[in-house]
Amino acid sequence: MVTNTEKLDAAVLEVFKNASTPSIATLLYKRGLRTNFVQGVSRLGGDRPNMVGQAFTLRYIPAREDLNQLEVFKDPEHPQRVAVETVPEGHVLVMDCRGDASAASAGGILAKRLEYRGCAGIVTDGGLRDTHEISKLRLPAYCAAASAPTNLTKHHAIDLNVPIGCGTAPVFPGDLVVGDADGVIIVPLHMASEIAAEIQDMEAFEAFVLDEVAKGSSIIGLYPPSAETRARFEACSKK
Amino acid sequence: MVTNTEKLDAAVLEVFKNASTPSIATLLYKRGLRTNFVQGVSRLGGDRPNMVGQAFTLRYIPAREDLNQLEVFKDPEHPQRVAVETVPEGHVLVMDCRGDASAASAGGILAKRLEYRGCAGIVTDGGLRDTHEISKLRLPAYCAAASAPTNLTKHHAIDLNVPIGCGTAPVFPGDLVVGDADGVIIVPLHMASEIAAEIQDMEAFEAFVLDEVAKGSSIIGLYPPSAETRARFEACSKK
Amino acid sequence: MVTNTEKLDAAVLEVFKNASTPSIATLLYKRGLRTNFVQGVSRLGGDRPNMVGQAFTLRYIPAREDLNQLEVFKDPEHPQRVAVETVPEGHVLVMDCRGDASAASAGGILAKRLEYRGCAGIVTDGGLRDTHEISKLRLPAYCAAASAPTNLTKHHAIDLNVPIGCGTAPVFPGDLVVGDADGVIIVPLHMASEIAAEIQDMEAFEAFVLDEVAKGSSIIGLYPPSAETRARFEACSKK
Amino acid sequence: MVTNTEKLDAAVLEVFKNASTPSIATLLYKRGLRTNFVQGVSRLGGDRPNMVGQAFTLRYIPAREDLNQLEVFKDPEHPQRVAVETVPEGHVLVMDCRGDASAASAGGILAKRLEYRGCAGIVTDGGLRDTHEISKLRLPAYCAAASAPTNLTKHHAIDLNVPIGCGTAPVFPGDLVVGDADGVIIVPLHMASEIAAEIQDMEAFEAFVLDEVAKGSSIIGLYPPSAETRARFEACSKK
Amino acid sequence: MVTNTEKLDAAVLEVFKNASTPSIATLLYKRGLRTNFVQGVSRLGGDRPNMVGQAFTLRYIPAREDLNQLEVFKDPEHPQRVAVETVPEGHVLVMDCRGDASAASAGGILAKRLEYRGCAGIVTDGGLRDTHEISKLRLPAYCAAASAPTNLTKHHAIDLNVPIGCGTAPVFPGDLVVGDADGVIIVPLHMASEIAAEIQDMEAFEAFVLDEVAKGSSIIGLYPPSAETRARFEACSKK
Amino acid sequence: MVTNTEKLDAAVLEVFKNASTPSIATLLYKRGLRTNFVQGVSRLGGDRPNMVGQAFTLRYIPAREDLNQLEVFKDPEHPQRVAVETVPEGHVLVMDCRGDASAASAGGILAKRLEYRGCAGIVTDGGLRDTHEISKLRLPAYCAAASAPTNLTKHHAIDLNVPIGCGTAPVFPGDLVVGDADGVIIVPLHMASEIAAEIQDMEAFEAFVLDEVAKGSSIIGLYPPSAETRARFEACSKK
Fold this sequence. Notes:
Six copies of one chain form a homohexamer. In chain A, about 30% of the residues lie in helices and about 20% in strands. The first copy, chain A, has helices spanning about 10-15, 20-30, 80-85, 110-115, 130-135, 190-215, 225-239; strands spanning about 40-45, 50-60, 90-95, 120-125, 125-130, 140-145, 145, 155-160, 165, 170, 175-180, 185. The first copy, chain A, has two domains: about 10-190, Ribonuclease E inhibitor RraA/RraA-like (Glucose Oxidase, domain 1, 3-Layer(bba) Sandwich), CATH 3.50.30; about 195-239, no CATH class. In chain A, helix 1 packs parallel to helix 6 (about 190-215) and helix 2 (about 20-30) packs across helix 6 (about 190-215). By secondary structure, the first copy, chain A, is of the alpha/beta class. Chains in contact: A-B, A-C, A-E, B-C, B-D, C-F, D-E, D-F, E-F. The interface of A and B includes residues 84, 108 and 146 of A.
């Protein structure tokens, strides 16, 4: 279990509260990263603020029937339960279910406990259960499907805070996890600050573009901007 | 066609109106049943009471073009139409489309007729059409996707009330079918009463747990409960 | 690039504003067409009027990394950008992403520009990004998934207004595209007028049927109608 | 269980021993049938004569753990075992596993027994086990994959000789089943004689075409034939 | 990295050289284990002796482009290369590629080195490259597909000898891995000896059954055996 | 239809006759190309020389029933037939079937004609029929599956020699196509010469490595080579 991951500055995290996953995806693309979007998950419940936090991971392997009786949860060392009690405040619990959503990886009680503990969100490429209850929490939650069966049915919790895959994205403990209406994206820890620095300008420019489009401007020469457009944007943003 | 399936007591059915599919899944798991959740279907429309009723089944095989012209519906013995007119009041119509949602298995008119006749719900691992209209009915309806093409395009109705598969779950006529926001689960007929007996305590305990979690309790020793927690719950529930 | 596709009469288009995709699917089925429903896409945002317009197509092939750097968008001839600026008013932009929704095929800025230009809707069997923003536009938009990565990640825009596949449906430039809550269906251009002529009666009859069902009528002899039912419907509709 | 299916003439069956599944597919296509090829199965073992026989069907539903203990095979009425002992000589045993090949639907011992009883072949859209042994039998066998787990793991044998789906093809008891290196195709019983009448000429013509192609002829005007080519073929075949 | 897994007796391993994966699957099924068959992999090359050995595992996560340049192989600690040099003699290298066969997990050079080092086989739910060369080795090799791209394209080697999933089967370091023509099955370490004890009788009985079937015996009362059959078998096997 | 694609030097083509697709994949990876391997296709028939030639493409869209009657083949301008008669000698016919192998894209007669005309091979991400006959030709043929149904069932031939996708790889007319036992890879035209220049050394080095491994060398320091190893290889190759 990785223990000493670097903590990101609160200011950096704050920037991502107003950054969209498409903008982040484009800045990762610029750096050659094409696979960091978590494929196939969607958010429970309606509109809410961005999910932003560093990753704390839980790895599942396929369940083996003799190892996954209901009694296992009585073990205080069961990794799923330990995860719920140890994910650091402000972190996102990211679970690797190998893309199998035919069983849950967590449910309403654990989600409520995570919310209480200040967890920043949960992401799983497996299922979640009690989705109606979870969707009413403030805690952002992303999963591949609602799925009533207990995790024991398919998933054996095995490791905490190791590098995992989630929805075909690589996730390292401490990576920045951002979620919005489009889904969840993973920003490698060492890229988070420089992307934060770039993204504010990018979001401002996109707002400017939307404004121009609303006024009837063609996108040619606007998005991406010609030198003239860029100058005009910069003039605007100085005001 | 199976005709004499045992009818469940109204009291048993009543219990399941307040039982969640995750709790049922766990009690089935305890009995060794891992595959009774209907995979891949979701509910049309928003929040509503649980769907609860015994299964009445309709089996489709793949359509063969020469047998599935629009005229077939003129036959008063067409199994889909017979199903709609004969599903007993309070039963759920469960359809086996072999997981193929590229065509509908029923639409708005049939759904409305089923509602009128007192049907408790419809479940299909194929498509439904007129989903906007169906979502406004009181009748709960679960499908794999909205799909405009008539069932004849892909599905040939062949059998009524035989054992089927639906969303990879085995379904026998008369089995108890329960649906909530997480999806649909099949309770084998002979297990329904004993699970009803167990589930009320389980739901009460989970409500107690949620309450404790809201107050800040750790889940370790709470869920599953230590002897002390269990005692405390029992003391509470006596009040 | 096909340039001279026949324009449909406004009156024909108008009819389809009140036609459902299931009814259209049935009339296509009657003519032997089983594959014109766009499989696997759903509408962003809530209830809204039907999407109706002729198809203007954009074809993507899989991206090749050396050809898809962010700079390509600076080319005023980039087919995606040209598509956005040239889709004729009242047409639907239909995109062929080979069913790969792991990247977007368009986003919020382009969607807003399309709305401004009077585009009748967008349909893609790939992803869309900025789905929250798009769902707030009046422009109807259908996609296989929300997906944050830029189209360059997976999709190379190659052709405008050639015949394509979208969601396993064949789409020819100029075909009529209709979308409602169930999804999107493609009406071959040369069939649009005759289907328009037939569908009004069909929708009226289905409304009559729903009414009868609401009053408690069995569907046997009603849907499809016996001679007596048909006569009764005709008597009603004359009033 | 259907019991009185019409038996095809030996002469008709004989014709199909020299007919290819592509030719049959084309003649079915001519009659509007597009879905009778069994998708996703392949033949065990190397080159061998065509499999030809009428269908005897076995339907599986998903296994339910409490109903599928190893003891069930002790029941002499277990449908899988009854199937093996009652499939009529010269018939093909066709199994519906809902396309799930993660467990076997039969193994080496049953295959050997079927061969001994004069069964014409086995086809399953599930798995087969002991594939090395089966591939050494004369009995043609087609499956979706080699799969070691016993059928009980996933498949509950439920019905004999009812209409089924196999590899997305509709199969009615008594339908003609033909298999070659390309796979398996289902000929509806009532079409078998007329297709037999047509296919001999078709195969003769294709042999003629191959001969012409070997001599350097273009396919334009040859395949399909111009009037001149057709005349030349007819002249040849009279010799 | 797990280091002290128990070594199985040579005598136990020897038994499995003559045991089939279907027989093992059945004995695991008897113990409640339904998921230990490695789904979706097949053997390269033709008939050969069973693969038998304990599991040594290699875990991959999805590749991240900045971490997977060709230079990484220069690192003598790269887990894939360390795996190849440290898998103990007689062990099977089992790789977890999350079922993604769009890139290789190993190729001809590593396979040849593994053969030289006395490795008992390789199993991956990803791809293998140089399959023609590997199929000519004595080393048994199982994969999901031939796949030319280097592992770096999709797979980032991360861990050695931790519990993994492979083809949806759970695999713990030290588990017994057996492969034959049907595929690969995982026997939990603690069950290996008792299954070895049972399987010899089972294989002998199946040989007896095949013999009886060859003589024309019905399977009813034979397989599974009636008391009479069992007695007869026991009499035979004493000779 | 693209007509003037550059022809590659015979010497360049010759080099690729002795190059493996894994080596090519690695050299493309070095240049940032990760998606040029044609996923999901395999070669018909046994061992044979590499397939090497420039791409001539045929694009299919989904079939529409009214446009795809058997008579269409009588049209001498039908794109599939034109493709067969116009693919230049030494070129590979690459077909885009959108990954749908449920129908054929070509069969034995067309394959034989292609062989006669000096075509270098066929590649399709759809099906092929008459696979037994095709596997006996010298013409290399790669497909996603054997599939008896005529192409008209699912595929409508629409375009010749335009950029396409095949098995998720981008293919431009004139690109170099190489196939071996592992599958098929696409080399962008402008990279073919420089990769040819690099690959001979690479193949020689891999042969040297295999030789060292056969003698018992560890792969550490060998593959990739340390400076010492590289020097030793260069000394060897000078001899």
